[in-house]
Design a protein that fits this description.
The protein is mostly helical and 173 residues long. Helix content is 51%, strand content 0%. It is globular, with a radius of gyration of 19 Å.
Length: 173
């Protein structure tokens, strides 16, 4: 009802309001998902039955078949990204903090993750769920942040010294 009523906040839904071509139809799921918080989306995914999680993975990624292990990995990746987003959005301490565990994909070299609860493990999770071009943009943006830092991030063990090489070795889902 809020999506239909608030003309100024949701102008793209004018067809679903009184007088619009689709006024009697239900608002499509893309509209809801574009306004859900990331935490809500990860919860929705986690509540799905295993077979439906596989359908989501098949729809969103390149392989034709995903097993139970990949759906568990995706759960940990989404949870790690949600935690990272919450820490950043609420200006909490990011460095030296342990968080939820990130499971590695079997297609990746086991030496990529030194720790499964540090910042680089969250970056690993982000690359795993992003499309290739978005994953490359993430690397460029991260490099800019590292270069602009006013202190040596390697002394504080914020990222491994060879993070770019490790990042390049992460396989896409």
């Amino acid at each position: 009802k809020q999506l239909r009523r608030n003309v100024h906040k949701y102008p793209e839904l004018k067809e679903y309001r009184t007088g619009g071509k689709r006024a009697k139809k239900k608002i499509p799921s893309w509209a809801a998902f574009s306004y859900f918080e990331f935490g809500t989306i990860t919860k929705l995914y986690s509540y799905l039955r295993g077979d439906l999680r596989k359908v989501v993975l098949i729809y969103g990624y390149s392989k034709k078949n995903y097993g139970k292990e990949v759906t568990k990995q995706m759960d940990t990746w989404l949870d790690a990204i949600r935690n990272l987003r919450n820490v950043c959005a609420h200006h909490n301490k990011l460095v030296g903090r342990t968080s939820s565990v990130v499971l590695m994909d079997k297609t990746d070299d086991s030496a990529i993750l030194v720790s499964n609860t540090d910042l680089f493990s969250r970056i690993y999770a982000m690359k795993k769920v992003l499309k290739a071009e978005d994953g490359e943009q993430l690397k460029k943006d991260l490099r800019k942040i590292v270069n602009k830092a006013k202190f040596d991030i390697y002394i504080f063990n914020i990222l491994p010294r060879d993070w770019e090489e490790l990042y390049d070795r992460i396989n896409f889902l």
